[in-house]
Please model this.
Amino acid sequence: MKKILSSMGNALKHFGQSVVKGDIWVRLSAVIMGAGYLGRRQIIKGILMTLVELVFIVYMATVGMPALSKFGTLGTVQYDSVFNLITMKNEVNDYDHSFKILLIGVITLVLIVGFLVIYLANMINVYKLQCAKKEGRHINTFKEDMRSYINEKFHITLLFLPCAGVLIFTIIPLIIMIAVAFTNYDQGHMPPAALFTWVGFRNFKTLFTSTTTITFGYAFRKVLSWTFIWAFFATFTAYLGGILLAMFINNQKTKLPKLWRTLFVITIAVPQFVSLLLVRNFFATTGIVNTICSNIGLTGFLQQIGLVGSHLNYIPFLTDPNWAKFMIIIINIWIGVPYQMLIATGVLMNIPAELVESARIDGAGPFQVFRKITMPYMLFITGPSLITQFIANINNFNVIYLLTQDVYKTSNQALANSNAKEVDLLVTWLFRLTSEYYNYKMASVIGCVVFVICAAFTLIAFRRMIKGDKEESFQ
Model:
């Protein structure tokens, strides 16, 4: 943040210097952006900058300003359709579309910021041209500048498209999502039939409120706690399982290691959604697993010890909240371990052999080698990947949704009032609010909360992980 503020301060300082010390061409560039280049006989640059300015002015006059003028209210004219007896047709009035106003308004604000950056850079550049001409230094032509972007400035050329893609497909949608969180955009305020407007922090207050009629606070606490429990167990069970499996397969005493490795890799080759849907059918109420458990007497035994209700003749693998949470974690181990096994295999092969050998000479057993050498080395190498997997599991939509959708029904009325279930993660709750109940305002609020949680955890975890110099320990 300090670097950003410092860069902005330097840019404004250079801009002020350009205005004060610039000649007539530099000052004229404040009005006509291409004037500074045209005055130095750089015709192509001058035309391009003038075109950029003209396009921006035309856009603002025709699209940008009309949207910004309604941005404060997100529209006031309601949709209306009247049947015209003369034309015998339905005639629609010139109504406002709240979401279009929001979308175009956000895009316009981003374009204004981008134009201001170009405007400041243009003033600074034309002043540099003035100084270069006064000092007798060479001024690059347009062709020379273009050639530099495939030579010494080639990194800028490579980064242009990715940065533009991030801006268009990530930053702008993210800003729009955040903006929706401050509106009343839901099924009762659905454009174009209805308008929605700004409501401030009301939705955030609703998310943390628990009353007789508003249960979002209760649902949020339940879903958030399960999200963290799921992310922890899903990450570390797969992580430790993958390491142990890799150690087992790579052990010299293990026979046919290639066969074992191939069998586990096959699970990766099968698309995850196919595997999850098959497993969901296996553990269904009338699925093959319940049939086997009933035939061997396991269902009756679980009834006797109180793990299955006496009124049930099956094990509620995916229909009871406690059983469903347990099974989701177990199934995820089967899905996640092969990935970790492949990663761990590569890392284990690079553990310095002299470290292990010296530990064995000193009398360390297999468990001590694992605890003092293998795990620290694995965490040192795969630590960033572990953090990424934890964040990915917080947002792991596939496993939860595909295993429980149309199978699990909540009996908790407080959760049902908020359109949530005991097995929901924040991301699946968000998805259900949008796709099934069209409650975009609360979905956006939850999306903002998920973003803050993931960003905070990532920053803290990475900062602690890269703190100090741990590399010397494994040299």
Observations:
- The longest helix spans residues 98-135.
- The longest strand covers residues 81-84.
